[in-house]
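README, section 4: Worked example with a bound small molecule

Sections 1 through 3 covered apo chains. Here we extend the same pipeline to holo records, where the ligand is supplied as SMILES alongside the sequence. The molecule in this example is flavin-adenine dinucleotide. Nothing else about the input changes; the structure line simply encodes the ligand pose together with the chain.
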Amino acid sequence: MIRHDAIGHDAIGHDAIGPDAIRHDALVLGGGLAGLTMAIQLKRQDPGIDVCVLERRAHPVPEAAHKVGESTVEIGAHYFANVLGLREHLEAAHIRKFGFRFFFSDGRRDIDRCTELGVSRVLPTPSWQIDRGRFENFLAEEARRLGVHFHDGAVVRAIELGTNAAPHVIAYEHAGVPHRVAAHWLIDASGRAGLLKRKLDLSAAEIHNANAVWWRVDGFVDPKDWSDDPQWLARCTPPDRWRSTNHMCGPGYWFWLIPLSSGAHSLGIVCDAAMH
Ligand SMILES: Cc1cc2nc3c(=O)[nH]c(=O)nc-3n(C[C@H](O)[C@H](O)[C@H](O)COP(=O)(O)OP(=O)(O)OC[C@H]3O[C@@H](n4cnc5c(N)ncnc54)[C@H](O)[C@@H]3O)c2cc1C
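The generated complex, written as structure tokens:
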């Protein structure tokens, strides 16, 4: 996040930013998970803040196959549910997660004989498996309802960082038409696009080189279908291992299984590039 301090809006003539630039208090580049939640948090904290979010993709985005990042951890779930007040939506529209679960096969193929690391009872601290498409559609609607200027289908093309207390100016394109907006607060929530990181040349070398591939299948994959051992089946109450973020782990890789409320299962492999 970048801020230029010192003077209020009125002290900056429109000429400084161009007569066509629309002024806001805060500009958020990228309306994914981070950008939309940030905008909602700002508005909930102070409804008077004028927040503008620019998101490249057109809304509504598709369910089931929008993005990865579907398994919330408890601290993130706390932020969504309690800080942003979205618990009702999470309970109604997503799947309550049965914690993380890891299987280490050590060469075995029978799941009920693999080493299993995971909870046997539902944790008191909730977390959810989120369908990213469904969640981001909801967040966008919620942001607009709170008064955020959320522009979908808006591609950021250029960033002019303000100097000497001048605001930052963003050029973006929507439906082929160029626009300009300006603000003293600029928040880069563009994810992997790293708009400010690239602009300011902040990239750092990555020492752990990992690759990932992912896809979705219709319906749910339930580990209980892979065993008929009554003891193993009875170990979890409720017997809902399918609601966990299940990881099948081996040397230098894991394979993830995450159920999505839209009726699909998210599957993916993460592996160490040096080994696979
Ligand atoms: C393989 C893999 C698995 C993962 N699994 C998990 C998981 O299980 N749980 C978890 O918590 N995290 C997971 N993550 C991490 C998670 O995906 C990210 O942390 C999260 O999605 C980041 O959200 P974000 O809002 O920063 O980025 P994004 O959701 O990617 O949002 C960035 C937004 O910026 C927009 N944008 C980009 N360029 C422009 C532009 N020029 N103009 C306008 N808009 C632009 C994009 O369209 C996008 O919507 C995983 C990551 C990977 C790679």
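What to look for in the output: The longest helix spans residues 132-145. DSSP finds seven helices and 17 strands in the chain.

Section 5 describes how to batch many such records.
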